[in-house]
């Protein structure tokens, strides 16, 4: 088992490697509040295979690997998530209720 760190964001555990790489699905879950974070990630990586190439597997626990990405890779994934929202709409979660001021 490799060493890793966990940060709680709004009740969601987000795992990080000692080198600062973030677990992709954990981060998507924390940002979106959606229980479909894995499906969102699968959709994005199919739409843009370059995102998948930025990731690597990290063994957080025995038999429990997850894809992690560095800061530059995460910035690309964030852009892809914005495109996902524009294409497919916002996830069904109260935290996505946005208000605008004029």
In short:
The chain is of the alpha+beta class and 102 residues long. The chain has one domain.
Structure description:
- The model is unreliable at 95-102 (pLDDT under 50).
- By secondary structure, the chain is of the alpha+beta class.
- It has one domain.
- Strand 1 and strand 2 (12-16) form a beta hairpin.
- Helix 1 (24-32) packs across helix 2.
- The N and C termini lie far apart (52 Å).
- It has 4 helices and 5 strands; from the N terminus they run βββαααββα.
- Helices cover 42% and strands 24% of the residues.
- A 3-stranded antiparallel beta sheet has the order 3-5-4. A two-stranded antiparallel sheet has the order 1-2.
- The protein is globular and about 40 Å long.
| Helix percentage range | 40-55%
What string, H for helix and E for strand, traces the elements in order? EEEHHHEEH
Please, what is the oligomeric state? single chain
**Would you report the number of β strands?**
5
Describe the biggest sheet?
A: 3 strands, antiparallel
């Amino acid at each position: 088992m490799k060493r890793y760190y966990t940060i709680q964001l709004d009740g969601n555990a987000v795992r990080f490697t000692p080198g600062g790489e973030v677990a992709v699905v954990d981060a998507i879950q924390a940002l979106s509040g959606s229980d479909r974070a894995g499906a969102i990630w699968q959709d994005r990586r199919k739409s843009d295979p370059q995102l998948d190439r930025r990731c690597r597997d990290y063994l957080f626990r025995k038999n429990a690997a997850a894809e992690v990405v560095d800061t530059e890779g995460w910035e690309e994934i964030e852009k892809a998530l914005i495109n996902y929202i524009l294409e497919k709409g916002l996830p069904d979660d109260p935290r996505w209720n946005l208000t605008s001021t004029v």
